[in-house]
Structures are given as structure tokens and as C-alpha cells.
């Protein structure tokens, strides 16, 4: 039996939460190897997000794409469940952190998860096409498989907008980035192929941001995480606005309107 020395124990404890994300010591804060004092005033929040997730700083064009995707996901009004829950929470005497957390916690596979799912869809098409199945056939096969599992294809169609106003400007940025060899264009091609295959149903914000996140090299689960980061800003703004109104215990409908009673 090996007997651990004090140094062995300290090393094992220190390794328990070993990380390459940050280095924090007395007088030292480094993010992915970059001293914080060198980042402050020179690095935007979007650059910082890229740094924390990719481990390097982005080029200006990469940052432009990521920033546009984040801005596109900031808010969608009080009828979005995450916003509504946060606003109701804000009237219940909780802090902003609780209201934000409550809003974030309702973002699941149905509300908030479509970007991740759509990027998984695009990735399947890209990989199948790269394996030698033609791009058109890969799109047909993958779309058919997804539609067999659900009548909703993530990233396409919108319950509110006939055509999502965020689609065209976001894809326009990607098209210019492809033309300038900033990104390869594989995910843009997959997204446009799906849109053509299921026309006239257009791509929505989740489909457009999935194109961007795929082109920028983010794995599919991070598409959901990045959406949560962006939407948290909208949640914060709505929760703060609700707190300024002073109303207490605000429910989902005005108190003079009663829910329909349906006898069992």
C-alpha cells in the first residue's frame, strides 16, 4: 500500500478541479492564459465569450458573426415563456438573480433548445454529404429521418412571424464571410438546403444562429448555451422593468379575467 505524503494529498486536491479555463491566485487572474489586466479595455464581451469557449481570441470577422448571433437572440417580448416567468417572478419579492434564474430554467428542448437541435441536424447533413452521399441526397435523407420523429423541424417556421426578420441579415453576414474565406460555408449550405427542401417554410432565428455557430466551430450543445447567455440579457431587462412598476404578485393574466373552468 502506497502512503501519501502531504505533497501528494495537496496535489491530488488541487487536481480535483483542475482547469484550463482560468488561473486564479493571489494577485493573479488569467482567462485562458490571458492576464485580465491585458483584456480590460481591449476586449469586448463577445471576444471574451469566444475566448472562454474556444481558448483563443477571435478575429474581427469571427467576432462580428458571433456578436450578430447573440444580438439576434436577446429578446422576443413578454409572450416568450422565459420572459413572462421572469417578469412574474420579479413581482414576487425575489431578487434579480432569482428572476433571471427562473426565466432561464424554463428554456428547455421546446423553448430554447431548437438552436442546438438545428445544429445537430445541419451536422448530420454535412457529415453524410462528406461521406460521399451527395449533398441533395444527404439533405433528403436526414430531413426525412427528423420529420419521422417530430412534425416540427427545429430552426424552421415561426409561431409568430411569417418570415423571421432576423434571418436575412444574419445569413447575409455569413454569405459575405464565406465569400471572404472567413468560414467554410458547409453549415450555410446545409441550412439553405433544408429550407429549400421544406419550402415554403422559412428558416427562423434558431436556424440562422445554428448556421453561424456551426460555421464558427461551436459544438451543438454550445448553441443552446449561447442562446441562454443572450436571452439572459433580455430577461434581465424585462425583470428590471417589471420591478420598477411596483406591482405585486402579477399573475399570467389580469385579475379581472378568470380562467375557463372545465368540469372534470
Low-confidence parts: none
**Elements, N to C (H/E):** HEEEHHHHHHHHHHH
In terms of DSSP E residues, the strand content is: under 5%
Indicate how many domains the architecture comprises: 2
Number of helices: 12
Largest sheet: 3 strands, antiparallel
Task: Give the strand order of the largest sheet, numbering strands 1, 2, ... along the chain.
Answer: 1-2-3
User: What is the helical fraction, as a range of percent?
Assistant: 55-70%
CA-CA gap between termini = 68 Å
Enzyme class: transferase
GO molecular function: citryl-CoA lyase activity
Pathway: Carbohydrate metabolism; tricarboxylic acid cycle
Family: Belongs to the citrate synthase family.
Can you walk me through this structure?
This protein has 12 helices and 3 strands; from the N terminus they run αβββααααααααααα. Strands 1-2-3 form a 3-stranded antiparallel β-sheet. The mean pLDDT is 95. The chain folds into 2 domains: 7-42, no CATH class; 44-251, no CATH class. A hairpin with a 2-residue loop joins strand 2 (28-31) and strand 3. It has helices at 6-16, 36-39, 45-54, 60-72, 81-90, 96-105, 114-130, 135-149, 167-179, 186-197, 205-215, 220-245, and strands spanning 22-25, 28-31, 34-35. The chain is 58% helix and 4% strand. The longest helix is centred in the C-terminal third of the chain and has 26 residues, at 220-245. It is globular and about 70 Å long. It has 264 residues and is mainly alpha-helical.
Amino acid at each position: 500500500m502506497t502512503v501519501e505524503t502531504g505533497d501528494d494529498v495537496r496535489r491530488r486536491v488541487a487536481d480535483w478541479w483542475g482547469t484550463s479555463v482560468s488561473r486564479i491566485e493571489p494577485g493573479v487572474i488569467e482567462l485562458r492564459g490571458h492576464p485580465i489586466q491585458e483584456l480590460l479595455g481591449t476586449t469586448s464581451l463577445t471576444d471574451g465569450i469566444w475566448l472562454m469557449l474556444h481558448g483563443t481570441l477571435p478575429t474581427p470577422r469571427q467576432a462580428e458573426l458571433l456578436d450578430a448571433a447573440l444580438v439576434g437572440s436577446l429578446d422576443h417580448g413578454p409572450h416568450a415563456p422565459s420572459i413572462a416567468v421572469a417578469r412574474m417572478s420579479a413581482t414576487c419579492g425575489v431578487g434579480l438573480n432569482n428572476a433571471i434564474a427562473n426565466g432561464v430554467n424554463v428554456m428547455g428542448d421546446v423553448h430554447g433548445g431548437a438552436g442546438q437541435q438545428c445544429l445537430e441536424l445541419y451536422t448530420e447533413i454535412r457529415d453524410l454529404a462528406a461521406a460521399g452521399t451527395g449533398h441533395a441526397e444527404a439533405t433528403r435523407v436526414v430531413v426525412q429521418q427528423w420529420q419521422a420523429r417530430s412534425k416540427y423541424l427545429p430552426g424552421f417556421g415561426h409561431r409568430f412571424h411569417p418570415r423571421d426578420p432576423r434571418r436575412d441579415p444574419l445569413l447575409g453576414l455569413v454569405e459575405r464571410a464565406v465569400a471572404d474565406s472567413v468560414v467554410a460555408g458547409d453549415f450555410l449550405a446545409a441550412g439553405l438546403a433544408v429550407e429549400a427542401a421544406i419550402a415554403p417554410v422559412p428558416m427562423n432565428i434558431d436556424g440562422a444562429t445554428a448556421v453561424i455557430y456551426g460555421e464558427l466551430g461551436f459544438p451543438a450543445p454550445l448553441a443552446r448555451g449561447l442562446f441562454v447567455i443572450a436571452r439572459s440579457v433580455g430577461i434581465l431587462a424585462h425583470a428590471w422593468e417589471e420591478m420598477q412598476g411596483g406591482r405585486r404578485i402579477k399573475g399570467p393574466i389580469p385579475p379581472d379575467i378568470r380562467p375557463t373552468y372545465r368540469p372534470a
